[in-house]
TrEMBL record:
Family matches, as Gene3D superfamilies: SGNH hydrolase (3.40.50.1110)
Species, as recorded: Cucurbita maxima
Gene it is expressed from: LOC111493597
Name of the protein in question: GDSL esterase/lipase At1g54790-like
GO molecular function, one term: hydrolase activity, acting on ester bonds
Entry similarity comment: Belongs to the 'GDSL' lipolytic enzyme family.
First and last residue of the signal peptide: 1-27
Length: 384
């Protein structure tokens, strides 16, 4: 069947092909030595758990890592994991993860679940806002250069080389939580979005002034298609579109993305000695929701791991993997039998299968500005 081919053959084949191409041939396969990532739970590989000292329960991590100890808010791999694999690189280690003699030779991940672009408040899930992540990176860079100067070969094997900080890729996937906070606080979007992007631009400028020259920026996805938002704000059917997504939240995401794209265009002309790539994650994810059945999925919005049953299988009183007493009854938010049929994992995050699809589409290059292809113009980190 076409659906089975698309999902279980075509997408893995695309990723495998990219990985093989990127790793084959001459020494010019890679023109960058490391990846430095900043963001929220969409790309957190363990930072929030290490930083706040708590654990995720099963079934988080069960699909690929067989354990929730990876610290990922997913049943398996994230988009950043698939991109690293396609580039022939190991999964990024979280900056705050100190157990197991972590190697940061190929980069470091500062993304932390719940993080925002704007500074954290007392009510924030994560204290590691974008500005803090930047401070962590700058501290990391200073320490690396200091330690490498001492010439300890064993230590140096675990650290990036100095040129990594100029020739490395700086990735960003952040802003979703800022928009969500604006809805809960009822802050007008025409006030919130410029403030968010001004803070973001200030952070990029700091990195540029400290030698960063390759920027890879994801926009935000269709927030209105997340079960958590629909459960909270979508009780009125007139507020939903034909796909069951919240119109207001998707409009907000599109407004944010249009202004983020404009910022990236400005930076492309301003940073004449740098590369700035904007990636339209929204378009990829919305296409997945709108055309889920053709892509081999069965549930575009209902959560795989949750409680309550159709249509959303989501209850904001109980999180994935937990057991609580609700309405006098002991209940558990369990995982579904086959996560590969679901787009949404726990109400706010995507399943590994969905992340794999999104990654395969990123690698086509047609969702990037400037665009690239496997046959011709590629982004700075996919040269061969």
């Amino acid at each position: 069947m076409a659906i089975s081919f698309t999902k279980f053959f075509a997408i893995p084949l695309m990723l495998t092909m990219c990985s093989t191409i990127f790793r084959s041939g001459s020494s010019s396969v890679f023109h960058y030595p490391a990846v430095f990532n900043f963001g929220d739970s969409n790309s957190d590989t363990g930072d929030l758990l290490a930083g706040k000292g708590f654990s995720l329960p099963l079934p988080y991590g069960e699909t690929y890592f067989q354990s929730p100890s990876s610290g990922r808010f997913c049943n398996g791999r994230l988009i950043i994991d698939f991109l690293m694999e396609a580039m022939g690189k190991p999964h990024l280690r979280a900056y705050l993860e100190s157990v197991g003699r972590p190697s940061f030779r190929k980069g470091c991940n500062y993304a932390a679940g719940g993080s925002t672009v704007l500074p954290a408040t007392a009510a924030s899930v994560s204290p590691f806002a974008f500005g803090v992540q930047l401070n962590q990176f700058l501290h990391f860079k200073d320490r690396v250069l200091l330690l490498r100067a001492k010439g300890n070969k064993k230590v140096n094997k675990l650290l990036p080389v100095e040129k990594s900080f100029k020739k490395g890729v700086y990735m960003f996937d952040i802003g979703q939580n800022d928009l969500t906070a604006a809805f809960y606080s009822k802050t007008p979007l025409d006030q919130a979005i410029p403030t968010i992007l001004t803070e973001f631009q200030t952070g990029l400028q700091r990195l540029y002034e400290n030698g960063a020259r390759h920027f890879w920026i994801h926009n935000t996805g269709p927030l209105g298609c997340l079960a958590q938002n629909i459960a909270t704000f979508g009780s009125d059917p007139s507020k939903l579109d034909e796909f069951g997504c919240l119109i207001s939240h998707n409009q907000a995401a599109n407004l944010f993305n249009s202004q983020l794209h404009a910022l990236c265009k400005t930076l492309q002309s301003q940073y004449v000695d740098a590369t700035v790539t904007y990636v339209d994650i929204y378009a990829i994810k919305f296409n997945l929701v709108a055309n889920y059945s053709q892509l081999g999925f069965e549930q575009p919005i209902m959560t795989c791991c949750g409680y309550g049953g159709p249509p959303l299988n989501y209850d904001n009183r109980i999180s994935c993997g937990l057991t609580k007493t609700l309405d006098g009854k002991v209940v558990t938010a369990k995982g579904c039998n086959d996560s590969s049929k679901y787009v949404n994992w726990d109400g706010t995050h995507y399943t590994e299968a969905a992340n794999e699809y999104v990654s395969s589409q990123i690698l086509t290059g047609k969702y990037s500005d400037p665009p690239f292809s496997l046959d011709h113009k590629r982004p700075f980190f996919l040269k061969f």
